[in-house]
Amino acid sequence: SGYVTYDPGFKNTGATKSAITFLDGEEGILRYRGYSIEELADKATFLEVAYLLINGELPTQIQLDSFANAIKAEAVVNDSIVKVSNAFPKEGHPMCEIAALVGSMSAFYDVDGNEDPEKSILRLIAQLPIMATWWYKKSIGEGINQADTSLDYCSDFLQLMFKTPGSSYQVDPIVSKALNKLLILHADHEQNCSTSTVRLVGSSHASLYASISAGINALWGPLHGGANQEVIEMLEAIKADGGDTEKYIAMAKDKNSGFRLMGFGHRVYKNFDPRAKIIKKAADDVLSALGVNDPVLGIASHLEQAALNDEYFVARKLYPNVDFYSGIIYRALGIPTNMFTVMFAIGRLPGWIAQWKEMRANKEPIGRPRQIYTGATERAFVEIANR
Ligand code: CMC
């Protein structure tokens, strides 16, 4: 029925019009609502950026306070969701658990499907970080903490993670500031795999919770958000292997090896990823401020230099992406490796929400790609006895 364009991976398909994030892959430019990522990462707080993405403008102090307070008011998770979390094995991957817990929010908060999406938005921003810390507490055999509404968003997350219940805990401002920067850098990235998933699921008018849960699952894959965990595992493997970066570069170039240099390459950025530039500097700053000497930083830097001087990577315009150095910072902050992608999800949440809202506000039609059929032509049914 008519002419269908074939575009596997949607490399050349603009599936929507969007006023949220501008990305120029040739020039390495990223802006949220017109503001450069460099300035936002340097000067804003994560909640300010969340407000900007979701509402279109930077908040005034009064608007920001009221947004932050509305989020704090939702920072108590329904008790039964704790039970759902406890039913998950502690060996399971935390991305699986948070996708399920976010999916379950529909059953607890939106039974009739009539919850005001503005309420769902506040609950998600308030509760995703809380639920994410449960997996960690379970993994180390500690009880969970309650939100401390006297703290800012990032500091409260750190308290939820690292405070041993019953004892006192002091948030290190260096750690909190670094986390703020990382979350801002992850907050939106136009029509990537997980965001497209959120929009596609939402286009059927599925609930915000259902759409975000789908987005979390899409983010989990190693070619997308899961790359940050894979990068550290790769760097560790290289370290254990005597630090032979050349061997891994050779493997990445060999198409039969099945190995890719994790944290390298990007569908859209073909000169550099501006987020990677900021993160690389932040990694140096944070590690020295915290007095952490992580040997994988040296391996990362060596690998980067080797790749940037190699014809294979140069010809294909493969550069370090956001995930290449972020894990090194997360590790210095004390976040366990298999929670790196969870941190990405917490950062990306406002972007997913903004994109979902925009899609609904613009009354976009249900997403429904076409195909080029390559199967059998018509044939007669064969009775089972005759097959
Ligand atoms: N190592 C080795 N070769 C690579 C790599 C890599 N990391 N990335 C791409 N290539 C090669 C690829 O084999 C292909 O070569 P050829 O033209 O000879 O067939 C060429 O470069 C183009 O690659 P592609 O797979 O067609 O490009 P894509 O736009 O479909 O994929 C990507 C982009 C990010 C999935 C890919 O570069 C990749 O797998 N990178 C490693 C995983 C990663 O770091 N992902 C995080 C992406 S950024 C943040 C996020 O999305 O979460």
UniProtKB/TrEMBL annotation:
Q: Which UniProt keywords apply?
A: Acyltransferase, Transferase, Tricarboxylic acid cycle
Q: Which GO terms describe its molecular function?
A: citrate synthase activity
| Spans traversing the lipid bilayer | none
User: How is this protein annotated for GO cellular component?
Assistant: cytoplasm
Q: Which domain of life is it from?
A: Bacteria
Active site (record annotation):
266, 323
List this protein's GO terms for biological process. tricarboxylic acid cycle
Q: Which Pfam family name is an example for this entry?
A: Citrate_synt
What does the sequence similarity comment in the record state about its family?
Answer: Belongs to the citrate synthase family.
In Swiss-Prot or TrEMBL terms, this protein is called: Citrate synthase
